[in-house]
Structure to design on (714 residues):
């Protein structure tokens, strides 16, 4: 009976629970409040996560820009070094030319001096001027003689030029490594735990080759054989006094040539290589010879700093490639002002779609050492450049060894950085952080470019962010697969059959693809 | 005699209009949620814009005169959102880490991880890099448009972007003579 009553009571209670909706809202409210609290925390944590992602992307950007900046610095310093080498060699030429030419000029003036007496009027003034000039030139000659240890064989200038080549070598090897350290430092400052810079050449790294895409050139890369018309005597220094001395000297050398007192084979004054002294080689063999300079003349894409903002920058400006001593170099028109520095011209050109657009072209000139021989030096064989030996100054030129194509060089000038952070601000981390922790990873890519001329004689290397491509296009894997990287150099990979190697790289490629997918959806 | 208690009869209630009333009552909350969603998006957008502005400023100035580019940057990246910025550019790399754990904790963690010779070496490298490079911290205080709905106060964003951005690019057309020497002198000066 008792048991039957309790069953009835329980049944009534159940009916009552279903029949009575009192307190229903309270239960719903509690559940909703909990859900709302979770939602709120989720929103806050999503905010922190998004904020962290933004910070990591900024850290990756700053990291890659800072690291690549050291690559650009390296190229800028190498460019300055190369140009300074040219200038030092040119200075040797100037001083040697003065040493050769001053006695001739003085001799010419001394011949002219008695001729003043033949003048009907102003003979005294003429004699005084010429005497003054002789005294001036004698003074210059004494100075030049005193500087002989500068321009003599293996003199101070020559050794300094060599030292600059060594300095460039140090830069090429060390600056990318400094860039890697800097990328890490900047990444940590911008909130990451780790910043890893990967220059494009890193996968194919060889211990005896620099990471910077440059290679050691030859002294002839500083020079070019002059086979075009000879311009006036020009100086690589746009310094008034020296220019004045050279201009005056040029006049004297004209006189010397006209009076047949000088054997000037080529370069200075208005010499005539095919004249009485025969060809240049014959002339040089007869004891003539001096120095000259040639302008390198480039047509470039617009320069960043000199053009209206609507002119696109970036890769388009680096399309035109001009290497030193290449066929692109044409003699400079007469006169310094036309060639000095940089000039800009524009023309209204019709575009394929029929519209007209102003096309800007920058003309950049730089001074380039040609070569010169002293009277006591043997002439060079026909068709050859200056004598090459290990004791000569060497410039460092663009392009890693064996990777000299423009497209390849541009690829080698890219860098990628990965910024990683493990920690993150969270509300209720116990509920919202996965067991494997909070990880944020971002990557960015930058490229080094030259807005003026694509060579290591123009110190206009800069850095900009680039669309990421090193992972996507397989640059990193190609280094392992095709490059002569550290592993291959250590003969480790030689023992792996090609088919197995292919499978391995494909496997890693799939992993990288998966990582990329994750990163992009992160 | 006590009258039997008459059952209390409430006035017949109607549920007409209840839904409308609930809807009206809920509307402000929906409004608040909508407004907050909009504000949330606006905050992130504006903060990201502020970072983009700083990044562009760093890239364009390349370690040079940043003030010359500030106006153009504002026109290119901020003006479309009605944003204005005040910039401060300082030498050296110091930026607070906003969404990480506290800076003090970071410092402690770093100290714990590195010690002895390794820490001395990394400190020395960082110090040398700081002196040798052209590291600058670009800071900006950016204000955006008033928030939709007026629920949140108009706030300003303080963003920081540390970068080593001086490429030592030489001016086009400038004489190269003496550049290497001047550079060397500058670097030696920095070290002392």
């Amino acid at each position: 009976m008792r048991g039957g009553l309790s069953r009835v009571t329980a049944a009534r209670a159940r009916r009552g629970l279903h029949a009575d909706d009192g307190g229903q809202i309270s239960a719903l409210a509690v559940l909703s409040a909990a859900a709302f609290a979770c939602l709120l925390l989720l929103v806050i944590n999503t905010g922190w996560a998004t904020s962290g992602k933004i910070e990591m992307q900024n850290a990756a950007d700053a990291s890659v820009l800072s690291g690549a900046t050291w690559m650009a610095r390296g190229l800028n310093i190498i460019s300055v070094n190369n140009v300074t080498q040219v200038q030092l060699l040119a200075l040797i030429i100037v001083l040697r030319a003065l040493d050769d030419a001053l006695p001739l000029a003085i001799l010419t003036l001394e011949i002219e001096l008695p001729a003043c007496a033949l003048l009907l009027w102003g003979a005294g003034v003429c004699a005084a001027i010429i005497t003054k000039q002789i005294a001036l030139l004698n003074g210059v000659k004494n100075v030049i003689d005193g500087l002989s240890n500068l321009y003599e064989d293996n003199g101070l200038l020559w050794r300094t030029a060599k030292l600059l080549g060594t300095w460039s070598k140090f830069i090429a090897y060390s600056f990318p490594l400094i860039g890697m350290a800097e990328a890490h430092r900047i990444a940590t400052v911008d909130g990451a735990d780790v910043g890893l810079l990967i220059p494009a050449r890193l996968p194919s790294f060889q211990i005896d080759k620099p990471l910077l895409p440059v290679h050691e050139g030859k002294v002839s890369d500083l020079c070019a054989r002059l086979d075009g018309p000879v311009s006036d005597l020009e100086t690589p220094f746009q310094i008034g006094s020296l220019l004045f001395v050279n201009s005056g000297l040029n006049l004297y050398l004209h006189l010397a040539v006209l009076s047949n007192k000088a054997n000037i084979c080529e370069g200075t004054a208005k010499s005539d290589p095919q004249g009485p002294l025969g060809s240049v080689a014959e002339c040089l063999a007869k004891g003539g010879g001096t120095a000259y300079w040639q302008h390198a003349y480039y047509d470039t894409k617009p320069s960043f700093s000199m053009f209206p903002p609507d002119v696109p920058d970036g890769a388009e400006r680096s399309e035109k490639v001009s290497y030193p001593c290449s066929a692109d170099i044409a003699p400079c028109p007469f006169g310094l002002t036309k060639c000095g520095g940089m000039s800009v011209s524009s023309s209204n050109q019709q575009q394929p779609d029929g519209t007209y657009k102003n096309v800007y072209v920058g003309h950049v000139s730089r001074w380039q050492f040609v070569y010169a021989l002293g009277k006591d030096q043997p002439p060079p064989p026909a068709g050859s450049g200056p004598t090459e030996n290990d004791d000569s100054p060497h410039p460092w030129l663009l392009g890693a060894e064996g990777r000299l194509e423009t497209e390849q060089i541009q690829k080698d000038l890219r860098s990628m950085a990965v910024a990683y952070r493990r920690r993150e601000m969270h509300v209720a981390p116990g509920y919202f952080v996965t067991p494997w922790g909070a990880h944020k990873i971002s990557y960015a890519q930058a490229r080094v470019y030259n807005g003026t001329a694509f060579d290591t004689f123009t110190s206009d290397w800069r850095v900009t962010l680039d669309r990421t491509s090193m992972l996507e296009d397989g640059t990193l894997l190609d280094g392992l697969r095709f490059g002569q990287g550290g592993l291959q150099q250590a003969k480790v990979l030689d023992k792996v059959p090609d088919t197995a190697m292919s499978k391995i790289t494909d496997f890693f490629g799939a992993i990288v693809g998966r990582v990329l997918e994750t990163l992009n959806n992160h | 005699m006590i009258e039997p208690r008459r059952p209390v009869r409430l006035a017949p209630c109607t549920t007409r209009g209840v839904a409308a009333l609930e809807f009206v009552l809920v509307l402000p909350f929906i409004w608040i949620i909508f407004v907050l969603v909009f504000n949330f998006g606006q905050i992130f957008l504006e903060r990201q814009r502020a970072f983009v502005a700083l990044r562009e400023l760093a890239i364009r100035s390349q370690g040079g005169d940043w003030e010359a580019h500030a106006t153009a940057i504002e026109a290119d990246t901020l003006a479309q959102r009605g944003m204005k910025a005040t910039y401060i550019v300082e030498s050296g790399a110091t930026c607070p880490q906003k969404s990480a754990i506290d800076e003090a904790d970071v410092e402690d963690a770093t100290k714990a991880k590195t010690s002895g010779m390794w820490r001395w070496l990394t400190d020395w490298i960082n110090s040398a890099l700081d002196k040798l490079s052209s590291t600058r911290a670009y800071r900006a205080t950016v204000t955006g448009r008033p928030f939709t709905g007026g629920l949140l106060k108009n706030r300003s964003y303080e963003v920081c972007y540390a970068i080593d951005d001086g490429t030592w690019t030489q001016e086009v057309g400038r004489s190269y003579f003496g550049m290497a020497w001047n550079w060397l002198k500058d670097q030696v000066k920095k070290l002392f």
Remarks:
- The CA atoms of residues 162 and 391 of chain A lie 8 Å apart.
- Chain A touches chain B through 56 residues (CB under 8 Å).
- The longest strand of chain A covers residues 356-369.
